[in-house]
Amino acid sequence: MTVDMIIGLAAEAIKVTLLLAAPMLGVGLVIGLIVSIFQAVTQIQEMTLTFVPKIVGVMLALVVALPWMINIIVTYTQNLFSNIPTYIK
Asked: Which of these, 45, 51, 69, 81, is most buried using a 10 Å CB contact count?
């Protein structure tokens, strides 16, 4: 196993991790921004107001993106397992 191969595996693992986390993080960011603007405009400073919409939004994003996420991780795992003979040379 060469250094280039290890760097390639690490880069692919980081790419897959970012792809899997992006939908939930993006939805949480957008909802948090909207709630923050709403709180600033209405001067409502309720701490629990930020958590409930974020939790609901992230769960909905997870449910919507789950088939795509499963496809990404299965493809990555199949590629990793099929290349095992290459890695041990």
From this structure: 69
Show the domain range for 55. 3-87
Question: In this structure, what token pair is assigned to residue 7?
Answer: 């760097």
pLDDT at residue 89 greater than cutoff 80: no
Nearest Cα to Cα of residue 32 among 62, 59, 53: 53
What total of structural domains would you count in the chain? 1
What is the pTM assigned to this prediction? 0.81
**Residue 21 near residue 72, CB atoms below 8 Å:** no
Q: What is the pLDDT of residues 8-56, one digit of tens each?
A: 999 999 999 999 999 999 999 999 999 999 988 988 888 888 899 999 9
CA distance 44 to 38: 8
Q: Which of 66, 46, 55, 52 is nearest to 27 (CA)?
A: 55
CA distance 67 to 65: 6
